[in-house]
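Your task
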Amino acid sequence: MLALLVLVGVVSGALYLVLDWVDGVAGTQVKPDAAIGGKDFVAAKLDAVKIALSAVAGGVALFALYLAVRRQMTAERDLRARLDAQAHTEDDAKARRVTELYTKAADQLGSDKAPVRLAGLYALERLGQDNPDQRSTIAKLWCAYLRMPYTPPPAPSAGVTRPPAGVARPLLRDPYRRIGIRIPGPDGAVPDPKAAQADAVLERDVRVSVQRLLATHLSPRPDDSGQPHPDYWPEIPELDLTEATLIDLDLSDCHLPALRINRASLIGDAMLNRVTFTGDAGFVGATFTGDAGFDGATFTGDAGFDGASFAGAAVFFRATFTGDAGFNGATFAGDAGFDDTTFAGAARFFRATFTSDAGFNGATFNGATFTGVARFDNVTFADDAVFIGATFTSDAGFFRATFAGGAGFDDVRFTGAAGFNGVRFAGAAGFDDVRFAGAAGFNGVRCVRFAGAAGFDDVRFTGAAGFNGVRFAGAAGFDGARFTGTASFVDARFTGGAGFDDEAFASAATCRGA
C-alpha cells in the first residue's frame, strides 16, 4: 500500500510538470530554421509524454499483478493449512478408531467363551492387514496369548477303569462318590467334567488358529508376479514364545525373525526357548534370519528342520526330541549348539552344512544323547565339530562326511555300530578314550583321510575295528588302545608317526599291505 501511494504521488507530480512544460512550449516562438516547430514540436513532446505515461501504467499493472500473486499465494497457504488440519483430524480419528478396534479385539481375546476369542483373533488380523504399523503389536499379542498357561484336554475316558459286566462294584466310603455327587470346589460350585473337557477342546482350536495365522503372515510365498504374497507381514520383528505350549506347529517355508537365546542378552529376537511342542513341529525350508534359540525346548512328536537355513547361531542346548529329528540339507551359517540335547528317536543330518566363520565355535554336540539312529552322512563341517562326551546308543553313521576343521570325539560312547567310511578329516581328529561297543568302521569304498593328527589313545574297540586303506598324513596315536574284537589295518598308510605303545589286541591284527 505504501509503495502504491508513492507511485501515485510520483505519477501525479510528473503529470503536473509535463502539463506545465507543454503550456510553456506552446507559447514559445520557434526559430524559422528549426526541423520542426509549433504544433509539430508540441505533438512530439506529447508523444514522449504518452510513452512515459504508458511505462508508468505498465509499472502499475506489474504492481497489481504482484499483489494478485501475493493474494493467490496467501489463499493457497491458507488452503494447505486447512487441508493439513483436516488430515491431522482424520489421522487422529483413524488412530482413535484403530485403538478402539484393538482394545475391543484384545478384550474379546480375554473372554471365557471360545467363539468370542476367535472373533477377537480374526478382528486383530483384519486390523493388521489394513494397518501395517499395527502388525508388530498384534503379533506380540498373539504370542502373549500362546504363552498363557494351557492344559491339553485329556484323552476320552483316560484313567477310567470300568468293572466287567456282572461284577459287583465295591462300596465307597466317600459319600460324594458313593451317591454319584461331584465334589464342590472351594467356591461351592460343582465342576462339570464334560464342560471342562469341551472348554479345553475349544481352547485348543483357538490356539491352533493363532498358530495358523502366524504361519500365514510369516510366509512370503510369492504370487504369480514373483512378489511376496499380500498376506506376508515383514513388519513382525520378533516372536516371543518363551515357555509356550505349541500344538502341531507348522512354520515350514516361513521367514522367521531371530530366536534369541536368552532374553537378557539379545533384544528384538524371537524366542522359543523352554517351549513345549505338542505333536509334530514343522520348520521345513524355514529361514531364520538371526539367532535361533530352542534351548530347553521339548518336542513330543517328530521335528522337521529339513532344508532350513540358520543365518545366525542355532542353539538347541538341553532340548529333547522325543520323536524323530530331521535336519537333512539344513544350513547352519553360525554356531550350531546341540550340547546336552537328547534325541530319543532318529536324528538325521543328511547333507547338512555347518559353515560357521572363523571365530565361532562351529558345531557342538557335547554330552548329547542319541538313543535312536544317528546319521551324519555327507555332512560338511566347515569349522570345528565337537562331540565330546556324547552317547550313541544305536548305530551312528558319518559316511563320506567332511571335517574341514578339528573333529573332537573324545570320551564318546558308541553302543551300536559306528561308521566313518569315506570321511575326510582336514584338521586334527581326536578319538581319545572313546568306547566302541559295536563295529567301528573307518574303511569302505572311499578310504578315510586324516590330514592332521589322529588320536585314538586309550580307545576301547569291543567289536570289529576296521582301518583298511586309511591314510594318516599326520601323527597317528593308538597308545593304550584295546582291541577286543578283530582289528584290520589292511593297506593303511602312515605318513606321519604311528604310536601303538601299550596297545592290546585280543585277537590277531591284520596289517597286510600297511
